[in-house]
Amino acid sequence: MFIVDHKELTLSFNDFHEVSDKDMPRYDEFCLLELKNGDYTAGRWQPSDDGGGAAGMFIRGTADTVDSEEVARWHSLDRSDLTECLETEGINWINIGRREEEGERNVQFEGFCSFADKKRPKEEQYCLLIMKDGTLAAGRWNKWRHEAGGDFIYAPALASYSCDKVWAWTPLSTDEVFAAELEREEEKKRERQLNKNPSADPELFSCGTDIDAYYERALEKLRGEFSWATLNMMKKCTPVWQIAPLHGKYVFCQIEKNYHDDSDIVIPWEEGTTAEEFIDFLCSYTRDAVKNSDPKERFKLGTDINVYLDRAFDNVKRDYHWLDKRMISNRCQYDIQRVNGDLEFVSRYRNESKFSVVDVNSAERFIECVEYDYQSAAIEANKTVASYAPAFGHISLHGWNLESYVFYRMQSGDYKVSVTAGDRVTGGSREFFITPHCFEAKTYEEFLDRYLEIVPEHSFGLGKKELLPDKELKKFLGY
Q1: What is the pLDDT of residues 72-84, one digit of tens each?
Q2: Do strands 166-171 and 159-162 pair parallel, antiparallel, or not at all (unpaired)?
Q3: Is CB count within 10 Å lower at the N or C end of the chain?
Q4: Residue 100 reports pLDDT greater than 70
């Protein structure tokens, strides 16, 4: 490992090239930049054309560039390896490039910090980096949201150097991105100061600053229409409303998390000015959630969970003839429990330690959920023994491309099909069971008519035009 003391180190850059001379870097070369205003930053050179001119931009990240017209000089960061110097004891000054003329204007950087010293750059700060392999680089600091550490973004699509690849760093000049981040931090400080002793509008908060007092008043009104209404039912309508300080005053609000730094974003209610208006708003906001929570509809078959599971099993067993009740036990558990005082359907899937609420508005809808799990468990338990993939050309599916379309014969003699589609960065697959109803068709064409109701052409890519002439598929399916 390097033995030079980074805290005493100075890097002197001596091989700058003038943009005014149209002396530009190689394509895609990463460079230290001296801007015309005297600031320093860095970026990867992307010319505007192949003519060898000075027009183009230096790329620092996604939507983060410096136009060449802003740049006075550049110095390559790609052409240096400091390993030998950093492994030599006592060195505290390293020249990058040879000084050929006495008095030539060079640029020095010092004040290097190390992650080993538990120091971190400020968020969005653009820094000069000495990498652990002895090379030079630069990037914008982006801390990891849920753990210690972070990385330096240096190119589009969030290409970055992880902090464990960086030996030492020092900040470059403040740019617009970093300045905006500093202003956000200052705004947060001002907001925290304002919110230390928030005031409450007496008209708006006549029932105090406990949000449940307003929910309970709204509950009294809802019970005039829905006798079964409870506070828990109202709060199924999410996000729930809260009371929080904003700009030094209490407000009715919803709170979201800022993806950037996990801070709270307070979204105030602005549809009225009195407590009664907010209570009426809460009634309208939660009305559908309460309406759809009628216990008589949800538990019309009683409170024995086995009654619902048996109904779902019988429905699925008609087509999935190999289905066994034990198949679902390895996949999930269902129950009816009291949650916050209300009866709820709950489920716990494989590897989950706690039950969670299955939020459905009727017994029929819950049974459908269980049916889906029975179907998935049955397919999972039925091994495939043969497959056939129809040939197809390029097929676009609403922005995705069809990648795979495969028919499978399962151990039970039944069939399923798996369809996969994706784009350059993501994708997904779905499986469909081909029901016995399809195979009751007397002809292959009639079979396809029924099959394409399950796996329609407009959604999954292949239709009669492609499947009807396929003799191998026809034979594979037993026609």
Answers
A1: 999 999 999 999 9
A2: unpaired
A3: N
A4: no
The three-state (H, E, C) secondary structure of the chain, written as one string:
CCCCCHHHCEEEECCCEEHHHCCCCCCCCEEEEEECCCCEEEEEEEECCCCCCCCEEEEEECCEEEEHHHEEEEEECCCCECHHHHCCCCCCEEEECCCCCCCCCCEEECCCECHHHCCCCCCCCEEEEEECCCEEEEEEEEECCCCCCEEEEEECCCEEEEHHHEEEEEECCCCHHHHHHHHHHHHHHHHHHHCCCCECCCCCCCCCCCHHHHHHHHHHHHCCCCCCCCHHHHCCCCCCCEEEEECCEEEEEEEEECCCCCCEEEEECCCCCCHHHHHHHHHHHHHHHHHCCCHHHHCCCCCCHHHHHHHHHHHHHCCCCCCCCHHHHCCEEEEEEEECCEEEEEEEECCCCCCEECCCCCHHHHHHHHHHHHHHHHHHHCCEEEEECCCCCCCEECCEEEEEEEEEEECCCCEEEEEEEECCCCEEEEEEEECHHHHCCCCHHHHHHHHHHHCCHHHHCCCHHHHCCCHHHHHHCCC
**Tokens standing for 354?**
């706690």
Using a pLDDT cut of 90, give the percent of the chain over it: 81
Residue bearing the bigger pLDDT, 440 or 104: 440
Instruction: Report pLDDT digits (tens) over 214-264.
Output: 999 999 999 999 999 999 999 999 999 999 999 999 999 999 988 767 788
Instruction: Return the pLDDT at 144.
Output: 87
Per-residue model confidence (pLDDT) at position 51: 57
Give the C-alpha separation, 472 to 333, whole Å. 42
Looking up tokens 């002809």, which residue turns up? Answer: 443
What single letter denotes the amino acid at residue 260? H
| pTM to 2 decimal places | 0.69
Is residue 439 classed exposed, middle or buried when 0-12, 13-18 and 19+ CB atoms within 10 A define those classes? middle
Dihedral class, residue 341 (left if φ above 0, else alpha if ψ from -120 to 50, else beta):
left
Token pair, residue 449, equals 């008519």
Encode burial over 285-295: b for 16+ CB neighbours within 10 A, e otherwise.
bbbebbbbbbe
**pLDDT one-digit tens code per residue, 446-475:** 999 999 999 999 989 899 999 999 999 999
* Mean pLDDT, residues 187-197: 94
Question: How large is the C-alpha radius of gyration of the chain?
Answer: 33
